[in-house]
Each structure stands twice: as C-alpha cells, then as structure tokens.
Amino acid sequence: MRIPTLLALSCAALTACAPAGPDGAAADTAVDIPSETAAVDSVLSALHRLASEGDFDTYFGLFTPDAVFMGTDATERWSVDEFRGYAAASSGWTYHMTERHVFLDGDGNTAWFDERLDNASYGETRGTGVLVKTGEGWKIAQYNLTIPIPNDLAREFVDRIRAHLSGTPGA
C-alpha cells in the first residue's frame, strides 16, 4: 500500500472515531477544564449548604431523576424519591468539606469526585460520586457517603459488624 493511501485511510479512521456532540455532529474538543471543574465544585458545595439549610426542594434539584444515593449503612442505596422520603423527617444535616478532588472525562460531560467531610456526629467522612452535564447544568448521578476506618482498626470493626449482623449479643 502506498504511503499517501495509508495516510488517507488513517485520517479517515481518526475522523470516524472522533467524539460526537449530543446532536451527532463532531464535538468541540476544547473543554475549559478549569471552568467545568469550578462548576462541578459549585454544585457539590451547594449540595452541602442546602442540606445544612434543610432546603430539600432545591437540594434534590441537584440530582438527576435516576440518581442513586448510597449512605453509610450497607442497606442505604436510595433512589432520589427514596432519599427524599428519608430527608422529609429531617431538618437537615451538616457536612463541612475539608478536601475535594474533581476530575473530568475528555469530552467534559462526565465528572467524578472524592471529598473529605467533617460532621459533628460522624466525624470524618468521605463523599464520592459522579456528575453528568445536562442541558440544565451539572447534576449528581451518584453520591456515596462513607465513614473511613483507619487500617489499624479495620479488623476490629469488621468483627463487630459481622457480630451485629449475625445477632450476636453484645455486638
């Protein structure tokens, strides 16, 4: 095969594999990473502020309709409606972000994060999740709240949780 033919085929293949925008047209690959990262950070900061204020109408507006929230208990895997039901009995909760890392995919339409949080009742917690860019801006598709356990204490807590789940007295 001649080099010009090979070059033409390579260019055609690369063009065919280029990311497409929402309308199927070639996507603009110039994603403003700092701006999009700041927008995601703003949504996550609003999430914690609104929860602390007990403004659940606005709070749940930050989630996609099919979002999942996973709480600290292994049984807490909630749809937005289920989580809204849990929140209805509350006046809010306060988590203060102490560290956050936000990452974007190449086309700038999906973000994921991890954050360290502080809470008066639970101490240090960790939030992780995924946001998607919609026509209405960034929305949370998944949020996972965990309580990190120091490695030196993990075995003790695993044993306590197993005893608790088995119904062993004193667990």
Descriptive notes:
The chain is an alpha+beta fold. Helix content is 38%, strand content 30%. The chain has helices at 3-16, 33-53, 56-60, 80-88, 151-166, and strands spanning 63-70, 77-79, 96-104, 110-119, 123-134, 137-146. Strands 2-1-6-5-4-3 form a 6-stranded mixed beta sheet. A hairpin with a 6-residue loop joins β1 (63-70) and β2 (77-79).
Helix and strand topology:
Layout: H1 3-16, H2 33-53, H3 56-60, E1 63-70, E2 77-79, H4 80-88, E3 96-104, E4 110-119, E5 123-134, E6 137-146, H5 151-166
Parallel strand pairs: 1-6
Antiparallel strand pairs: 1-2, 3-4, 4-5, 5-6
Q: CA-to-CA gap between the ends?
A: 73 Å
How large is the radius of gyration?
22 Å
Q: What is the mean predicted local confidence, pLDDT? A: 87
Topology order in helix (H) and strand (E) letters: HHHEEHEEEEH
SS-based class: alpha+beta
Total DSSP E strands? 6
Low-confidence stretches: 4-25
Major β-sheet profile: 6 strands, mixed
Structure in a nutshell:
The chain is α+β, with helices and mostly antiparallel strands and 171 residues long. It has helices spanning 3-16, 33-53, 56-60, 80-88, 151-166, and strands at 63-70, 77-79, 96-104, 110-119, 123-134, 137-146.
Give keywords.
38% helix; 5 helices; alpha+beta; six-stranded mixed sheet; 30% strand; 171 residues
